[in-house]
Amino acid sequence: MNIIILLHLMLVVLLGTTANLSLKYGLYITTSTNGTRTSIRNLLFSRYFLIWFICYTFMTILWLYVLQTIPLSQAFPVLGLMYALIPIASHYFLKEQVIFSQWLGIGIIIAGVILVVH
Questions:
Q1: What is the pLDDT of residues 78-116, one digit of tens each?
Q2: 69-99 core/surface letters (b: 16 or more CB in 10 A; e: else)
Q3: If 98 and its partner were Cys, which of 10, 34, 91, 92 is the partner (CB 3.0–4.6 Å)?
Q4: What's the predicted TM-score (pTM) here?
């Protein structure tokens, strides 16, 4: 796998991570400002939902490009990095608690992806 394809894959992972964080933050903001449960309408018209939509659109287009160039068996395991990056980003940006066993799992996921890609 060449470096350009690897960079495209990492961009797919980053876009997916950003999309998930944006959606979660949009739910959090909409709920905290209303003091009640979030309505679907409020979420759909929030800028965070728009960020989610844009990220997932570009992520999907880029993913299709990547799949044209390398086998799925090589590309798909890299998406597992989202399972590691989302909790890390949630911890730093959304102030969510990540416990020791989760940190351990994150380390295992990253090591596994490195082994599969290498």
A1: 999 999 999 999 999 999 999 999 999 999 999 999 998
A2: ebeeebbebbeebbebbbbebbeeeeeeeee
A3: 91
A4: 0.85
Q: How far is CA 63 from its chain centroid?
A: 13
Alpha-carbon distances of 14 from 38, 43, 58, rounded to whole Å: 26, 22, 11
* Residue whose pair of structure tokens reads 């969510």 in the numeric block: 96
What b/e readout covers 30-68, taking b as 16+ CB neighbours within 10 angstroms?
Answer: beeeeeeebeeebbeebebbebbeebbeebeeebeebee
User: Which token pair is 35?
Assistant: 């003091």
Task: Band the pLDDT of 22: cuts 50, 70, 90.
Answer: very high
Amino acid of residue 115: L
pLDDT tens digits along 41-58 = 777 888 999 999 999 999
CA–CA gap between residue 113 and residue 74 (Å, rounded): 10
